[in-house]
Each structure stands twice: as C-alpha cells, then as structure tokens.
Amino acid sequence: MVATADYCGRFAPTPSGPLHFGSLLAALASYLDARALGGRWLVRIEDIDEPRAVSGADKVILEQLKQHELHWDGDVWYQSRRTNVYQAALQRLTDQQLTYHCECSRKQIKALGPFYTGVCRDKNLRAKNTAVRFRNDHPIRSFEDGLLGHIDIEREFAAEDFVLFRRDGLFTYQLAVVIDDIEQGITDIVRGEDLLTASSWQLNLWRYFTDRTPKFKHVPLALDEHGNKLSKQNHAPALDKDYVTAQLCAAMQFLGLRPDANLAPADLVASAVTQWRAIYFPERA
C-alpha cells in the first residue's frame, strides 16, 4: 500500500509501573491506526510527574512493547529531559498575558465547587508558592472524534483555567503533552476515553503554538469487576510475557477485531493492521 507520509501517531505511557491490559489497548489501537496508513508510530515516556515515576519502569514498558511486536520508529523521548522546552513554552504564553499565578490549594478549590472559578485571576500574585494557570478566555467546547463522532464538552469544564505549572515545581501533563505532540509532528492521537474531556484544554493550547490541530480517536476503557478503569493505581495486573498471544487476542477482540489464536504474535499484529484498515480506512484497504 502507499504510505501516508504525514501521518504520525504515538503511545505515551507514564512509567509508574509495567503495562497492563488497559495500557495494551491504547498501545495497540494507536499502533494499528498508524500502521494502517503506513504512518510513523512513536513512543514517548511521560515522566514529567517525577513522584509517580518508578525507577526502571520505562525499560520494562519498552520491553513489553517489543514482546507484543509493537515496534516504534525513531528515538524514545523522555519528558523529564525537556523541562527547558516547557519553560520556554510557558514563558511564551506568559508573554501573551495568557497566564496568572494561583495560590489556591486543592482543598480550597474543592470547597468552592467542582470547577475552579478563577478566584486568583485578578490578584496579581507573585510566583512564590503558587501554581501557574492558563487564562482560558476562549474555551473549546466541542470537537470531532474519529470513533465517537461529535463531542460536546461540559461548558464549565471547557472554560476552567487549568494549571500549567504546579505549586510543587512540576510542569503539568496538559502543557507537556501539547508541546511534545507539536514538536514530534504528531498528527493523530489515539488513546483511552479517560482523556476525552481534557482534549478540549489541549486543543486550546495547540492554537497558541501552531496553526494545525491533531485528529483524535478515543478508545473504550477496560474496566475491572467493580467497574473501575484498569490502571496501575488500581493495581491492575501487569502483562505476562508468557501469554503474549492470548493478551493480543483479547485486546483485538476488545477493539472489535477478529484474532486468530493460531498465529504468531507478529502475524497476529499484521492481521490486526489489515482489519483496522478495512474498518476505519476502507478506501485504503
């Protein structure tokens, strides 16, 4: 098939532990979407939240991807090595008067209601012991999703002045992920539905750094027996290297594909690419 030269997708896990089934779903879906169009697929380790990062987890994650025949293009980026880039981006927003300092604690914000109401907007606070928030005067309240269709975001959430730099001295995911996606040339973002609403904030930031915007596909979340999202925080079991085929088959079935358990992992993934292309890009099948 002819490659779509400008397609670039990515998988960007937090190294807080090994990959689990929910992680595999996101990795596989993003991989299939990229390879179905002959595009590039990158891996980025999102370790900007240093307290959550577990030593050595990045190496385990990369090995798990290889075991499941999900091979990436180019070098692996680490957010922890890019703080100077995020600082420059934050300064750019500040120079445009798009940020302000906030002294509110989480407890104080929660006491005021479910959304931050901008109580520090006009206080002109100094930087000491404060967070930096984005002055969200022009929120994005809707966008199109390649799997879910038209998405409307709750007005109060979309308009919230979200945090770019935390009081503990760390840059937030919202800022780092946008800057990295732009610099890596990401065109298509395929990830779990838990990040659906935050897409409005991220799309908002995109327009202050570039004229282009990414396409989104948000895949359903895998849940445990209690209806909770599978996550490292909820102690989801790690992928087992001795059950790669079974895990790939289960992930394919979850994504609406038809796996053949008799195939080797590499052939199973190749089959998944073909099926994904037929479903989502029939003009390329």
Keywords:
protein biosynthesis; Rossmann fold; three-stranded antiparallel sheet; disordered N terminus; EC 6.1.1.-; ATP-binding; ATP binding; alpha/beta; 2 domains; 285 residues
Number of strands: 10
The pLDDT mean sits at 93
Number of helices: 9
The helical percent reads: 25-40%
Q: Describe the biggest sheet?
A: 3 strands, parallel
Q: What is Rg?
A: 20 Å
- Sheet/helix structural class: alpha/beta
Count of the domains: 2
CATH topology of the largest domain: Rossmann fold
What's this, in brief?
Helices cover 34% and strands 14% of the residues. The chain folds into 2 domains: 8-81 and 179-284, Rossmann fold (3-Layer(aba) Sandwich); 83-165, 3-Layer(aba) Sandwich (Rossmann fold), CATH 3.40.50. The model is unreliable at 1-5 (pLDDT under 50).
Description:
By secondary structure, the protein is α/β, with parallel strands linked by helices. The protein has two domains: 8-81 and 179-284, HUPs (Rossmann fold), CATH 3.40.50; 83-165, Rossmann fold, CATH 3.40.50.620. It is built from nine helices and ten strands. It has helices spanning 21-36, 57-67, 83-95, 106-112, 155-158, 173-183, 198-206, 244-254, 265-280; strands at residues 8-11, 40-45, 77-78, 99-102, 131-134, 142-145, 149-152, 163-165, 188-192, 215-219. The strands form four sheets. The chain has a three-stranded parallel sheet, covered by helices on one side. A three-stranded antiparallel sheet has the order 4-5-8. A two-stranded antiparallel sheet has the order 6-7. α7 (198-206) links the parallel β9 and β10. α1 packs across α8 (244-254), α1 (21-36) crosses α9 and α6 (173-183) packs across α7. The chain is globular, with a radius of gyration of 20 Å. Mean pLDDT is 93; it is low at 1-5. Its cofactor is Zn(2+). Its EC number is 6.1.1.-.
